[in-house]
UniProtKB/TrEMBL annotation:
This is Flavin-containing monooxygenase 1. Broad spectrum monooxygenase that catalyzes the oxygenation of a wide variety of nitrogen- and sulfur-containing compounds including xenobiotics. Catalyzes the S-oxygenation of hypotaurine to produce taurine, an organic osmolyte involved in cell volume regulation as well as a variety of cytoprotective and developmental processes. It catalyses: trimethylamine + NADPH + O2 = trimethylamine N-oxide + NADP(+) + H2O; N,N-dimethylaniline + NADPH + O2 + H(+) = N,N-dimethylaniline N-oxide + NADP(+) + H2O; hypotaurine + NADH + O2 + H(+) = taurine + NAD(+) + H2O; hypotaurine + NADPH + O2 + H(+) = taurine + NADP(+) + H2O. Its cofactor is FAD. It is found in: Endoplasmic reticulum membrane.
Length: 528
């Protein structure tokens, strides 16, 4: 019996993967419906993520799909939150997940049983309708997300206590009406910060973004009009990024992100450009900077009564409203602190999933990671691995080996991503997926396919690493995986080619022919 906490993206994947392995999941969801972060409500609910109605996914539908359940072909390439919620409901219905979910049930506490050292079991106390119930479970999957507790470090902003205007955390944002005719300051430059600034600039008198670090900005519409992640998240690109010397890899990233526009000219160049920052996805910001709707400023030095002073700027900027887009705090209020150790907003977890010190590997945390790509395939892969660990089909290394890797990972993350806010949660998307897939025997073999199915092999290597690749073989093999991979560009172009007849799905097949020829030529040359 497995307790699953939360019925968002991670919780649904966890429930489904448990069923696939013949386990008995019970999913506890404190609200009245599934969807988690992607279920919009007009009012902010305690303990739940809060979404503004204009949110659109930052990753494309083909790269975001669960690996055995493609999005409908008529869905747009990047999804408004309502359509993504619709997809999750279709997923839950298709795999009959709702019957395993207890809605309106809050998890109060999860504690080790007295005989945990031998059984690995947990006491799970839940509350529904004012009544508490205690149940025993053999394992626990925590899928409660990390967008519920806002981080608002007011102590880092001198003078905020005397500021006479209004200030909010981005979690409180719903509609731009509040900005009508106001002078607005947005502190922080993540995806939410830029979204809010762009929306505010359409009705506000003036909008300023304050960022101490800068950010790389990507458009959803990338080279030749294709989705950014279908161009950048390929096996070929991953091979280049992970094997090039550091300075050369950093130069390549700089070159790629500056092809759209020169970040330095727009005041956006990251403070330390050699660090691999999580890119911000927004299609409007550069033009809004060009037209004067939005101004970029350095970090806040001090707040005054009705104004703000920035670092390296001598003049005060008058403002009426401040929105702090300063992220969220990781917490597990239903767990004892000793179970999952959280330090500097980072939980020490093996492969971002398992606590390293438990006597039995019967508790896992899903979704506490920031991959440079779509989150849904990642949490699904985590769930596939975890369910097989719970079942005893996959073994974890020793405690000392896991602890050593976690510490090494932290050092590497600092070197590549920096150590500010949640950078330690970031990781290379495809490398991480491949690592977990190899544990369960689901990692595709490009060389093996080159001999048996060369067209598919070339598509997998040079094309986007869509999640269906991880259903070609191994446990949970899906018969439709090959067809889903070969038709992925058709589903991308279907909702956009609405005026002209559908022709060739993309220029990608011709690229495959060229690259396949070059690969064959190289093989012949090296063979001799």
């Amino acid at each position: 019996r497995v307790a699953v906490v939360g019925a968002g993206v991670s919780g649904l994947a966890a429930t489904k993967c448990c069923l696939d392995e013949g386990l008995e999941p019970t999913c506890f969801e404190r609200s009245k419906d599934i969807g988690g972060l992607w279920r919009y409500t007009e009012h902010i609910e305690a303990g739940r993520p809060s979404l503004y109605p204009s949110v659109i996914s930052n990753t494309s539908k083909e790269m975001s799909a669960f690996s055995d359940f493609p999005f409908p072909e008529h869905f747009p390439v990047f999804l408004p939150n309502a359509l993504l919620l619709d997809y999750l409901r279709r997923y839950a219905e298709h795999f009959s997940l709702r019957e395993h979910i207890r809605f309106g049930t809050k998890v109060v506490s999860i504690r080790k049983r007295p005989d945990f050292a031998t059984t690995g079991q947990w006491n799970v106390v839940t509350e529904a309708g004012g009544k508490q119930t205690s149940d025993v479970f053999d394992a626990v999957m925590i899928c409660s997300g990390n967008f519920s507790e806002p981080s608002l470090p007011l102590q880092c902003f001198p003078g905020i206590e005397r500021f006479r205007g209004q200030y909010f955390h981005s979690r409180q944002y719903k509609h731009p009406d509040v900005f009508q005719g106001k002078r607005v300051l947005v502190v922080g430059m993540g995806n939410s910060g830029v979204d809010i600034a762009v929306e505010a600039s359409r009705v506000a008198a003036k909008v300023t973004i304050s960022t101490s670090r800068g950010a790389w900005l990507l458009s959803r519409v990338f080279e030749h009009g294709y989705p950014w992640d279908m161009i950048l998240n390929t096996r070929l690109m991953s091979l280049i990024k992970t094997n090039l010397p550091g300075p050369l890899s950093w130069w390549l990233i700089n070159y790629k992100v500056n092809q759209w526009f020169n970040h330095e000219n727009y005041g956006l160049q990251p403070e330390k450009s050699w660090l691999v920052r999580e890119p911000v996805l927004n299609d409007d910001l550069p033009s809004y900077i060009l037209t004067g709707r939005i101004t970029i400023k350095p970090g806040v030095k001090e707040f005054k009564d009705n104004s703000v002073l920035f670092h390296s700027c001598s003049e005060e900027e008058p403002i009426d409203i401040v929105f702090f887009c300063t992220g969220y705090t990781v917490s597990f209020p239903f767990l004892e602190e000793s179970v999952v150790r959280v330090e500097n907003r980072h939980a020490s977890l093996y492969k971002y999933v398992f606590p390293t010190h438990l006597q039995k590997p019967t508790l896992a945390v899903l979704g506490l990671i920031k991959p440079l790509g779509a989150i849904m395939p990642v949490v699904e892969m985590q769930a596939r691995w975890v369910s097989r660990v719970f079942k005893g089909l996959c073994k974890l290394p020793s405690h000392s080996v896991m602890e050593k890797e976690v510490n090494e990972k932290k050092k590497n993350q600092v070197q590549w991503f920096g150590l500010t806010f949640d950078e330690v949660l970031k990781t290379e998307w495809l490398v991480y997926l491949d690592t977990l897939a190899s544990y369960i025997g689901a990692k595709p073999s490009v060389l093996g396919l080159l001999c048996t199915d060369p067209w598919l092999a070339l598509t997998i290597f040079f094309g986007p690493c869509s999640p269906y690749q991880y259903r070609l073989g191994g446990p949970g093999r899906w018969e439709g995986a090959r067809q889903a991979i070969l038709t992925q560009w058709d589903r991308v172009l279907k909702p956009t080619r609405t005026r002209v007849p559908a022709g060739s799905s993309s220029s990608f097949p011709s690229l495959l022919i060229v690259m396949g020829f070059l690969l064959l030529l190289a093989a012949v040359i090296f063979g001799f």
